[in-house]
Write a structure and sequence with these properties.
alpha+beta; Aminopeptidase; eight-stranded mixed beta sheet; 5 helices; 8 strands; 28% helix
């Protein structure tokens, strides 16, 4: 892996800015995350989600980034710099790979924003961090997330049956991955 960034990077796409999470984002983050349809697809997001949860998350992001193996990025509308969702890169320096996790507020679903953000983070990971491999996972109840991964060139690598327990329900986790030499910037 190349040098870890000194500060959280700002990445731009045609419609989005991926940047450091700011205090001004927290009320909208809490509003968008306080949606069961969003949180049911995430393993670590509490529901209901409050402003206090958002405040705890921004502190955690700064702590994790300081360990030089985690890059947290707010997904924002480029025109208004308005918070829409989140994507993070959890890096294994030893193995030169990363696991990506993401979510988007429901009002932004179905517009291609997540594919745009994921593609940009893949590009950053392979070109700037010189990672060899990147992976992402989703619950079987959220096949749309798998479609986003496939649209960005990631390949299905397997199903961990009953891997996550939520209440009395066991959820399968489906994994996707992509290697540096498989990544095509514009798919």
């Amino acid at each position: 892996m190349q040098h870890f960034p000194e500060k959280i990077p700002t990445l731009e796409t045609k419609r989005l800015i991926l940047r450091e999470l700011k205090e001004k984002d927290l009320p909208l983050m809490a509003e968008l995350a306080n949606d069961y349809e969003v949180s049911k697809n995430l393993s670590t997001m509490p529901y209901p989600y409050s402003l206090d949860n958002a405040k705890e998350w921004i502190v955690k992001c700064k702590e994790k980034f300081s360990k030089k193996d985690f890059i947290p990025l707010a997904i924002c509308d480029k025109e208004r710099d308005e918070f829409m969702g989140f994507i993070d890169t959890d890096i294994s320096v030893l193995h030169n790979h990363a696991t990506l996790a993401y979510w988007l507020g429901r009002k932004h679903w179905g517009k291609g924003y997540m594919s745009e953000a994921l593609r940009k983070v893949l590009e950053y990971g392979f070109k700037e961090l010189n990672l060899y491999r990147m992976t992402a996972y989703h619950f079987h109840i959220n096949p749309t997330s798998g479609k986003v991964m496939q649209k960005c060139g990631m390949k299905f690598e397997g199903n961990r049956r009953g891997h996550f327990k939520r209440g009395e329900e066991y959820l399968d986790i489906l994994g996707y991955g992509i290697l540096k030499d498989e990544f095509i910037e514009e798919i």
